[in-house]
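Q: How would the structure tokens look for this protein?
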Amino acid sequence: MTPLCLIQLISEQTIQNLLPIHALQPTLLVHLATEKTAHRAVHIKDAALVSGLDAQFETIRLSLMPSIAETARRVKHAVEVSKQAGMLPIVNFTGGTKLMSIGAYQEAAKQQVASFYVDAQSGQFLDGETGAAITSVFGNDLSFSTIIARLTLDMMVVANGHQSVSAGREWSPLLPAAQALMTNTEDAQALSQTVLKQLPDPNGKNLRPADWLAVLDTPFSVPPTLLAPLCDAGILRPCASPEKACLPEISRELLQSLSQEKNTPDFFTHFDRAKLPLAQARNFITGSWWEVIVVHSMERSGRFQDLRWSADITQQSGAKIEEDILALNGADAVCVSCKTGGAGKKLLPHLEELSARSRAVGGAFTRTFLAVQRLLQRNEASIVSRARELRIRLLTPENINHPESFD
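A: Here is the predicted structure in token form.
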């Protein structure tokens, strides 16, 4: 088979460049980018490498506002070079500015090489009809369906400028405990208040390893409806006192070691690792159980691929941002934020933050959801209105089990 040279225009959005790479698996990938979008060309290259593409990469720098003629001239050069190397050129004229798109399309027609447009809304590639039919390289099925199964969150996140995304946590073992908290609402609220009052925040800076050893053995009251499910899930452990429990002791050995070694170079790294399961147990009881309910409902809906709960997105700076739930819906990234409380004064600004964060995850086509376990009636109208304006779908206990809620 003749090796392919894929010539693409680069803009701020990346999905129209990412999809053809995985559909065509080119031997040479040529990106035409301006100074403003050159960084996106790098991100797309990184995403291609993450996917395992074995290709050569070339970025052609255009002026800040390329004309039709400039773009056409650069496309012509890329076509000629690829032909001289024995490759079959194909032009993707989807990205860039309108003038860039016109220039690329006109030159593809002049050179009589195949070209196409990525129609993200309808989920298919459209033949530019400038040369041979694109079915000769794409195959007869021009829909995205043939490549969606190969897309991953890793590719999507890297293509949008981040370093990586973690695999997230396994939620299935915690589901029975989450369902118990969901069913016994009043007991769940009472236990949450108890934990917040009696157990220190593991992210706090004041407690030493020896202090946390004492916390491990401090029992607190747990409603009978929740005691067994939480202990069975390893969130808590039973103690001698009836209707009481303690935090899990998975970190005991490490805390005992750290209490005697305070000046080792990696002390704080190990200390954070020791506190992590304690923080996770505390967070689960005080709210992250709702995230497990939501991600389980998303899985049951059959709408999503590559579901990840509590995944960390690592930025290029090395900083990490934890997202409640991430997934793919076809060729679109999905970002879900989960809140147990529904106070308007907190949710309204959170909607703005969520909108910005979701775009950073997967670009303009990211599907965004806010799952609220308790939405206060007096705030409902303003929350619903602002969410609609930002194109954020609201999920609640009333609609979470209806697959169409995720459409």
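Residues 267-301 form the longest helix (35 residues).

The chain has a mean pLDDT of 93.

Upvote if useful.
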